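[09:14] KT: can someone run the structure on this one? pasting the chain below
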Amino acid sequence: MTILLLILLSALLQIVAAWFALRINRIAGRPLAWILMSSALALMAVRRLFLLVEFHQNGFPAYLLPNEVMSFVISALLLGGVILIHGLFRAKAAEAASLEVARAGAREDADKLSAVLRATPLPTWIAEDPECRVVHGNPAAADLLRVPVDANHSASVAQEVGETQVAWTGHFRLVQHGRELRPDEMPMQRACLKGEEVREEPLDLIFDDGIVHHLMTYATPLRLGDGRIHGAVCCMVDLTEFRRVEGALAKAHKMESLGMLAGGLAHDFNNIFQVMVANLEMARSSAPGESPVRSYLDRLQAGLDRASNLSRDILHCSGGDLRRPESLDLSSLVAGVLDQVGLGVTRDLATVLPRVMMDPVLVGRVVEGLVTNALEANSAPGAVRVRTFMRQVTSVELAAGHWPEPVEPGLYAVLEVTDQGDGIDAATLPRIFDPFFSTRDMGRGLGLPAALGILRGHRGGIQVESIPGAGSVFRGYFPSPESLETPTVPPADGLPTRNLVLLADDEAELRSVLAEMLQEWFGLEVVCASDGQEALEIFNHRPEAFDLVFLDATMPRMNGVEAFRRMRQVRPGLPGILCSGYALPASREQAVAEGFADFLKKPFTSKELREILDRVLTSRA
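[09:31] RB: done, structure tokens below
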């Protein structure tokens, strides 16, 4: 009976072990191995049952008891081992499932990080090892370095790492405070190798083709749970455009300040010169034809002309003194100036150019100034070339050079002057348009600033390219408007006699000499006022009596424009002339927009005054 029980228990244990082996198959995922084990255990249990049937028919031998006891113990141990293996595999399965969840979360986080890196406009790099031998960058980083996105951006290695091609090919360098950085001195390498936190560190990225990017750099190390560094993150902010705009604003503010200073000086000088010009002309007309006094007056006139030209150059620096723009052909104007001054240069003038609105006198000064500057640059004879052409200027080209603010891209007529002289070094180039700055012993430092002011007054600009020892290229740009028709004024036959003029100027000497000139030379009756407020009060007493008002633009209490505006409210058709020694780029246009018949720039001659009086009073008559 004991042997029978042992055989049954052994078979049962083997069947249970086979069942656990099948369960392990479901967990471990190795079906063939565990099916074979389960089959072996099941066959062992079947064999035990066959022995049980045989021994039941033939009887149980006495020696069988020890064997069956041993078989039972083996079956029990086998079942215990399978149960332990089952538990181990269940734990491993749970651990694997947890690991898979963690991996899925890590993949999701990595996808999110990758999306953020792709979307961010900041160049960003991630080092995957403490030596920065494998560095990946986002698209912005690849664009900045001009390398493929999927390349290794590491600067710490100069060969292939595995199958990853290193992007560091030496076509650029990082410079800090004028010194090129070694790979181990770069921000990411310092973060990895030394654990430094890099914040707002300026760097210059310089390519072999000369393009420079001004960068602000940030870097931080990546640490494991135990504090060990396993990589780093680095990002850079490209400040190049910001620096360009900042420099342009600083340059514009400087030019504006210098222009205001120059314009203020010119305004005061022009008022003084106007008194001198008027008195000199009246003295010359009073002197007998053979009097030796006339030679003294001629010398005085020559000196006054030079002083007036100097004052005008100062005023040009502020962009003022644009008088009467006309619809002209740039090539014809340039050819005429070169013929007139007799400058020996090579000409390449376009035969067909759209007509451009320009002041011929002022543009002539630009041509003469640029060509003279080129000839004085130690150029060989015939090495100066003057060229005119049309160019479609883009917003990218507007970023270089000196332009008024704001200015729009479009079609421009271009005056280009090229020389093969000494050239201009990088330190001097930003200063060449500063008033009174000159590198020549006899220079006044007003030629180029005046040219820039005149071009800005025409809503144009100027660009300069120069290589020391090779020469320079100056390009002046004039906007080409679509409509260039200008009204023509019929010639005047003469002034109507005894017109009544209201004259207002705060300079007593100038007011006196102008009144005398208007009365004695032009046969006009004059009523004088010392400022705009007094002129308005005189006008309001008898508004229909005056045939013309002659007003200075800048006066105390009330300026000429405001006084004329109030006079026109009383008498809308009143003709007026505005004059000033401080002309803005669009002085005449602004004066006409305010209702004035014309604008007169100080200092003016009697001839200029007569031409305007002819035009205004004759048209009224």
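[09:33] KT: thanks! Confidence is low (pLDDT under 50) at residues 159-167, 482-496.
[09:34] RB: yep, looked fine to me
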